[in-house]
């Protein structure tokens, strides 16, 4: 790739025939669940998540200028080297929305090459990390093509808006640490359009958060989250859910700032169980929890009672359990997992993760 020094920094030449842009973006696990949405992927309620460190998607976007613009978007999406129609369709849909504001998309052939670093079929939803990585590549491309330099804050905000349009929870994967998405009256700068990093105080215990993902079943969930969100539209508890999530989020913000981790645990667990209660009471009557999920929950509660530790569980839209604990409890927790929980995991499979720093640019020669 030909580059040129401009004011001490390298930028990509616009007349270049091909460009390669790479980002890795992390997965995240929500403590306050986003469940239900309005038009254009705007959330019914605010949410908050922990960005993970070890579970991420790496995406390279290869761009080649077309000989002649033909009014069509030419895009291919490869996952671990194989053409992936399913996720490709989601990216196609996103690009078709974006093309009015990114008309240059007609001028290039795009190929996304994506890989997850968490095992395939680990039951970790990859749409958040994949969509976040794709959005970061697209905003980098936009910046190169339009020569419009954004501040870092503006750059990541734009990526969060675009990631959100592809997959709601992906909006949060644009940032490290603890992240909120959705307008929260008490948090300046928050919006339904994009996520924002949540400011933790210097000694906050959450900076030491770790996550053990207990894989009860690695199969893809029987209900897509799109369908789950759609079912909320006519859900008899929709209004109640919005109020519950809003209250839980403001209580959680208070509990975090007061370092009240027993309350943090109570709220996070209430959110996980509420998500599943909403699934069960929706028109589809979807049950994603499995007997071993319930066994793990029982064991975690017993362990917490007997040790007084401030750890807790949360669950995504699936049967697997995230055990959230803190660095200083690691030895005790690992022993507990080995002695009491592994037996409930499919093929004794669990994943060791922790709070992470957020996306990484893999092609540092590109200015963004
Ligand atoms: O981003 P989506 O549309 O796949 O929805 C994700 C919803 C949950 O994972 C269940 C909760 C959340 O906030 O991450």
Describe it:
This protein is an alpha+beta fold. It has 2 domains: about 1-195, Ribosomal Protein S5, domain 2; about 205-355, Alpha-Beta Plaits. The protein has helices at about 85-100, 125-145, 150-165, 225-230, 240-255, 260-280, 290-305, 330-340; strands spanning about 5, 10, 20-30, 35-40, 40-45, 45-65, 75-80, 80-85, 110-115, 180, 195, 210-215, 310-315, 320-325, 350-355, 360. The strands form 4 sheets. Strands 3, 6, 7, 8, 9, 10, 11 and 16 form an 8-stranded mixed β-sheet that branches. Strands 13-14-12-15 form a 4-stranded antiparallel β-sheet. The radius of gyration is 21 Å and the shape is globular. The protein starts with a strand and ends in a 7-residue tail after the last strand. Bound molecules: (3R)-3-hydroxy-3-methyl-5-(phosphonooxy)pentanoic acid. (3R)-3-hydroxy-3-methyl-5-(phosphonooxy)pentanoic acid binds near residues 34 and 128.
Radius of gyration: 21 Å
At the first level of CATH, the class of the largest domain is Alpha Beta
State the separation between the terminal residues, measured CA to CA. Answer: 16 Å
Number of helices: 8
* Number of separate domains: 2
Shape: globular
The profile of the biggest β sheet is: 8 strands, mixed
Characteristic terms for this protein:
about 375 residues, alpha+beta, Ribosomal Protein S5, domain 2, Alpha-Beta Plaits, 2 domains, eight-stranded mixed β-sheet, four-stranded antiparallel β-sheet, 16 strands, about 25% strand, binds (3R)-3-hydroxy-3-methyl-5-(phosphonooxy)pentanoic acid
């Amino acid at each position: 790739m030909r580059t040129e020094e401009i004011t001490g920094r390298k930028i990509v030449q616009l007349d270049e025939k091909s460009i390669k842009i790479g980002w890795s973006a992390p997965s995240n696990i929500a403590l306050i669940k986003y469940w239900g949405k309005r038009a254009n992927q705007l959330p019914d309620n605010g949410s908050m998540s922990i960005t993970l460190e070890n579970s991420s998607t790496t995406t390279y976007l290869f761009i080649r200028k077309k000989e002649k613009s033909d009014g069509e978007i030419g895009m291919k999406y490869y996952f671990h080297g194989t053409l992936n129609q399913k996720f490709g369709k989601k990216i196609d849909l996103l690009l078709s929305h974006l093309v009015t504001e990114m008309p240059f998309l007609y001028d290039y052939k795009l190929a996304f090459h994506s890989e997850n670093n968490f095992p395939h079929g680990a039951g970790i939803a990859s749409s958040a990390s994949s969509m976040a990585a794709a959005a970061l590549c697209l905003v980098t491309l936009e910046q190169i093509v339009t020569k419009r330099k954004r501040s870092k804050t503006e750059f990541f905000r734009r990526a969060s808006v675009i990631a959100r349009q592809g997959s709601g929870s992906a909006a949060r994967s644009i940032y490290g640490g603890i992240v909120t998405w959705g307008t929260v009256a008490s948090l300046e700068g928050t919006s339904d359009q994009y996520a924002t990093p949540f400011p933790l105080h210097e000694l906050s215990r959450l900076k030491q958060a770790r996550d053990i993902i207990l894989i009860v079943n690695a199969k893809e969930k029987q209900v897509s989250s799109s369908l789950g969100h759609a079912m909320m539209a006519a859900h008899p508890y929709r209004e109640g859910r919005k109020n519950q999530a809003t209250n839980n989020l403001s209580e959680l913000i208070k509990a975090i700032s007061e370092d009240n981790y027993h309350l943090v645990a109570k709220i996070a667990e209430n959110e996980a169980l509420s998500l599943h209660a909403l699934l069960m009471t929706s028109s589809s009557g979807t049950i994603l929890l499995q007997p071993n999920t319930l066994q793990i929950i029982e064991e975690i509660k017993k362990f917490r009672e007997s040790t007084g530790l401030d750890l807790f569980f949360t669950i995504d839209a699936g049967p697997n359990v995230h055990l959230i604990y803190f660095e200083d409890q690691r030895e005790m927790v690992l022993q507990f997992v080995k002695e009491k929980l592994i037996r409930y995991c499919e093929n004794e499979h669990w994943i060791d993760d922790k709070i992470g720093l957020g996306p990484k640019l893999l092609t540092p020669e590109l200015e963004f």
